[in-house]
Amino acid sequence: MTQIAFIGGGNMATSIIGGLIKQGESKPDMIHVSDPNADQVQQLSEQFGIHGHSDNQQAIASADVVIMAVKPQVMKAVLAPLKDTLSQRQPMLLSIAAGISLTSLQSWSGCEAIVRCMPNTPSLLGLGASGLFATDKVSIDQRNIADALLRAVGISVWVQNEAELDAVTAVSGSGPAYYFLLMEAMIEAGKKLGLSEETATQLTQQTALGAGKMAMEADVSAAELRRRVTSPGGTTERAIQTFEAAHLRDIVEAALTAASDRAAELSKQLGD
Ligand SMILES: NC(=O)C1=CN([C@@H]2O[C@H](COP(=O)(O)OP(=O)(O)OC[C@H]3O[C@@H](n4cnc5c(N)ncnc54)[C@H](O)[C@@H]3O)[C@@H](O)[C@H]2O)C=CC1
Ligand SMILES: O=C(O)[C@@H]1CCC=N1
C-alpha cells in the first residue's frame, strides 16, 4: 500500500487525511504528517492514529507520495532542506498550494513526477471540488493515486494544461466565497424586508443547499431549473429582470477573470 507523507497538517491536510481514512483509501499506519505546530501533530495522531512528526525529513523518509500542504509563501523555504532526499528518492510530489507553478515545484524539490492540484474548502466536509494537472513524468498508477487522494474529499477533475488551473482557481477554488457573498447579501436584504436575522439566515442557507442539490441531481441545465421557478408575470421574473438590468453576468465574468488573472500573477510572484 502507498506510503503518504503530508508536509503541513493544517485545514486542508486534516480534511484529506480524514477523507482517506473514512473512505478506506488508506490505512492510518501508512500516513505520516509533519508540522512545526506540536499541538496540531498530536491532535492529528490521536484523532486518526497516523504517524506524527515535527521533522519533515522523518515524515518523507519512506514516502511514495509527498503532499505539500503548506501555505504558498513558505513552499520554497520548506522544500529547500528536503531537496536532496526528494531528488534521490523521487516520490510523487502533490502540491495543493495556490499559485505555485510546476516549474517552481520541480526546481525547488528536484522531483520529476509532480501533480499540481487546486482543491477548495468544502473538502473539509467531503464536498470539495479539485482540479488536477500532472507532468508527463507522472505514471498512470501515480495519477490514479493522486485522483483517489482528492476524491476522498470530493470530486476531482483533470485539466489539459497548467494554465487551466488558474481558471479552476477562479471557478471552484475561490468559488465558495462567491456563494457566501450572495448569501450575506440575501440575509441583509431579507432583514430589510422585515425578517429576523435568524429567519433570514435559516431560509437563505436551506435555499442554497436545496438549489445546489437540485442542480446536482437534475438532468436539465441550471438555466432550465431557473425557468421552472420563474412564473410568467410573477415574483422571480421581477428579481431576475433586476439582476439582468444590473448586468450580473458581466459582473460574474469580470470577477472570475480578475481571480484567474491574480492566480497567474501569484505564480509569477511566488516563482523563482
Ligand atoms: N483554504 C483554501 O480555501 C484553500 C487552500 N489551498 C491551499 O492549501 C494549502 C494549505 O492551506 P490550509 O490547510 O488552509 O492552511 P493551514 O494554515 O491550515 O495549514 C498549513 C500548515 O502548514 C504548517 N507549516 C508551516 N510551516 C511548515 C513547515 N516548515 N513544515 C511543515 N509544515 C509547516 C502550518 O503550521 C500549518 O499547520 C495552501 O497552500 C493553500 O494555498 C488550496 C485551495 C483552497
Ligand atoms: O484566495 C486564495 O488565494 C486561495 C486560492 C483559492 C482559495 N483561496
TrEMBL record:
Residues 162-266 form the Pyrroline-5-carboxylate reductase dimerisation domain. Its main location: cytoplasm. Residues 3-99 form the Pyrroline-5-carboxylate reductase catalytic N-terminal domain. It is found in: Cytoplasm. Keywords: Amino-acid biosynthesis, Cytoplasm, NADP, Oxidoreductase, Proline biosynthesis. GO terms for molecular function: pyrroline-5-carboxylate reductase activity. Pathway: Amino-acid biosynthesis; L-proline biosynthesis; L-proline from L-glutamate 5-semialdehyde: step 1/1. InterPro entries: 6-PGluconate_DH-like_C_sf, NAD(P)-bd_dom_sf, P5C_Rdtase_cat_N, P5CR-like_CS, P5CR_dimer, Pyrroline-COOH_reductase. Its EC number is 1.5.1.2. It catalyses: L-proline + NAD(+) = (S)-1-pyrroline-5-carboxylate + NADH + 2 H(+); L-proline + NADP(+) = (S)-1-pyrroline-5-carboxylate + NADPH + 2 H(+). NCBIfam families: proC. Catalyzes the reduction of 1-pyrroline-5-carboxylate (PCA) to L-proline. Belongs to the pyrroline-5-carboxylate reductase family. This is Pyrroline-5-carboxylate reductase. It comes from Bacterioplanoides pacificum. The lineage of its organism: Bacteria, Pseudomonadati, Pseudomonadota, Gammaproteobacteria, Oceanospirillales. The gene is proC.
